[in-house]
């Protein structure tokens, strides 16, 4: 067998092997990049959801305290209120009567013994969380109890 002919047949096989190896490594690298990007996005969305949840809970707690203290200024209802310490987090509160109690308006007090539904919406970036709470107002603001907390 002629040695020079054998060398000519194998010439370029190392380059082909190098190209195949590079293509394989590039595919693996692209896969890792996609997985990393997906995990990063999931972590950011999870954090945004937690911040929105805390904003909703802060709003619900403000509404419970306002009902318990027999407040009469309800102008902050149904408006976006910024949460201190969280740059873009806001909450929005809606309080509905569940019986014969009148709706809360400026100057009105919650009815002792009345039951109210609080719908607190927390927003952060593009994430929304909702907390529903039922509150029974005690006499003269005493013994106000919140029950039936639900999260969405």
Give a description of the structure.
By secondary structure, the protein is of the alpha+beta class. The chain has one domain. The protein has 2 helices and 5 strands. It has a 5-stranded antiparallel sheet with strand order 1-2-3-4-5. A hairpin with an 8-residue loop joins strand 4 (127-136) and strand 5. It is rod-shaped. It comes from Methylomusa anaerophila. This is Type 4 fimbrial biogenesis protein PilX N-terminal domain-containing protein. Keywords: Membrane, Transmembrane, Transmembrane helix. The chain crosses the membrane at residues 12-35.
Summarize the structure.
With 152 residues, the chain is α+β, with helices and mostly antiparallel strands. It is 42% helix and 24% strand.
């Amino acid at each position: 067998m002629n040695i020079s002919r054998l060398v000519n047949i194998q010439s370029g096989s190392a380059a082909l092997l190098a190209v195949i190896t590079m293509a394989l490594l590039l595919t693996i690298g692209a896969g890792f990049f996609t997985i990393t990007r997906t995990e990063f996005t999931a972590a950011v969305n999870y954090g945004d959801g937690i911040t929105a949840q805390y904003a909703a809970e802060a709003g619900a707690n403000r509404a419970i305290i306002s009902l318990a203290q027999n407040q009469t200024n309800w102008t902050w209802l149904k408006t976006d209120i910024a949460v201190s310490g969280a740059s873009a987090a806001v909450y929005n509160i809606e309080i509905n009567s569940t019986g014969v109690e009148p709706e809360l308006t400026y100057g009105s007090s919650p009815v002792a013994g009345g039951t109210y539904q609080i719908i607190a919406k927390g927003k952060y970036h593009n994430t929304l969380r909702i907390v529903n709470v039922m509150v029974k107002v005690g006499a003269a603001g005493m013994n106000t109890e919140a029950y039936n907390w639900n999260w969405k």
